[in-house]
Amino acid sequence: MKVLKFAAFALLFVLISDVSADGKTRKHKKYRRPRPQPTESSAEVAQNEPKLSESLPPMAAGLDMIDNRVPVTDPCLDVQCGAGMVCELDKEGEAQCVCIASCPEETESRRKVCSNLNETWPSDCAVYQQRCLCRNNDPKCKGDKYKHIHIEYYGTCREMPECKTSEMADFPRRMRDWLFNVMRDLADRRELSPHYLEMEKDAESNMTRRWTNAAIWKFCDLDGHPPDRFVSRHELFPIRAPLMALEHCISPFLNSCDTDDDHKITIKEWAKCLELDEDDIEDKCDDLASAEAE
Ligand SMILES: *[C@@H]1O[C@H](CO)[C@@H](O)[C@H](O)[C@H]1NC(C)=O
Ligand SMILES: *[C@@H]1O[C@H](CO)[C@@H](O)[C@H](O)[C@H]1NC(C)=O
After folding, report:
1. Helix (H) / strand (E) containing 275
2. Which segment of the chain is annotated as a signal peptide (predicted)?
3. 158 C-alpha to center of ligand 1: Å?
4. More confident residue, 148 or 40
5. pLDDT for 105-139, tens place per residue?
6. 220 and which of 18, 54, 86, 285 could share a cystine (Cβ 3.0–4.6 Å)?
7. To 10 degrees, what angle do helices 165-188 and 250-257 make?
8. Interior CA angle at 82 toward 81 and 84, to 5°?
9. Is 116 touching ligand 2 by the criterion CB < 6 Å?
10. Per the structure, how many domains does the chain have?
11. CATH number, domain with residue 171
């Protein structure tokens, strides 16, 4: 049972890092939130993409016919709105992001998500729509607390087993091992940038660097939105949300990383919670890779 769980976790990890390691998916990094589940990412993109027919209000459409100075290209084409929002043209014909009017009807229960308020929502769209409405003081907002609503994990809300002290004590070691295994796997598949491939090779020859290099690589990988050498709670989303269901210690573990409780994890804090020697950790993020992805 334990082995199976480990395997599932490792596989998930591979899938997740796989997606985030792919520079191409980060094109619009400014406005796009991290992709949670690889299998659902395409549907999600389609959901966030502004639709031409819907974004042209009748006024602007009418203007287009009588005044040919109105640009034919939709200003919304270049705009990426945040989660729960779509692009629309305002009265002046300027692109603006507004709360999505209605989310696609979800009948599939696997689309359900559990929010940080421990409430099950039909889809991630529904969660972000509600947050958008509340932030815009829309009457459809169900209460102030939804201003900061976010997805805690995928699936319906359920009772999470408590992370026992003994499990928590063992967690940093398991996490280090997983990180290295994921890194090695990506290296085998030639899916690391040359910079990280070099770090992986280095890691193979030295047990200390095996863990430190993997930790540095994952830190840099998470710190992509934006790459500011801090991993925010938001940037932890790609590990937290999918793993919650499998590893009930992941949340307490990640919380423990933020020792000064400023909602940001530095590379030193990351090293510390993985129980690595801070002195062995240096900032070796691949600036080239993030530049390429711009
Ligand atoms: C969250 O909701 C589930 C299902 O309603 C419940 O079983 C669980 O105890 C709740 N968890 C917390 C922390 O309140
Ligand atoms: C392994 O790497 C660490 C940290 O870089 C270094 O201090 C140590 O001497 C290395 N050990 C070996 C056997 O090379």
Report:
1. none
2. 1-21
3. 5
4. 148
5. 888 888 899 999 999 999 999 999 999 999 999 99
6. 285
7. 90
8. 105
9. no
10. 2
11. 1.10.238.10
- Answer whether residue 64 is part of any domain: no
pLDDT of residue 69: 56
Tokens of 168: 């928590």
Q: Which of 166-180, 189-203, 235-249 has the weakest average pLDDT?
A: 235-249
Q: Is 282 in the pocket of ligand 2 (CB under 6 A)?
A: no
Preceding omega of 226 cis (within 30 degrees of 0): yes
Pocket of ligand 2 contains residue 202 by CB under 6 Å = no
Can you give the three-state secondary structure of 159-199, one letter per residue? CCCCCCHHHHHHHHHHHHHHHHHHHHHHHHCCCCCHHHHHH
C-beta of 206 in contact with ligand 2 (< 6 A): yes
**Is 190 in the same domain as 263?**
yes
Q: Which of 205, 207, 209 to mutate to test the pocket of ligand 2 (most atoms within 8 A of CB)?
A: 209
Which residues have any ligand 1 atom within 6 Å of their CB? 118, 157-159
Angle at which helices 165-188 and 2-21 cross, to 10°: 50
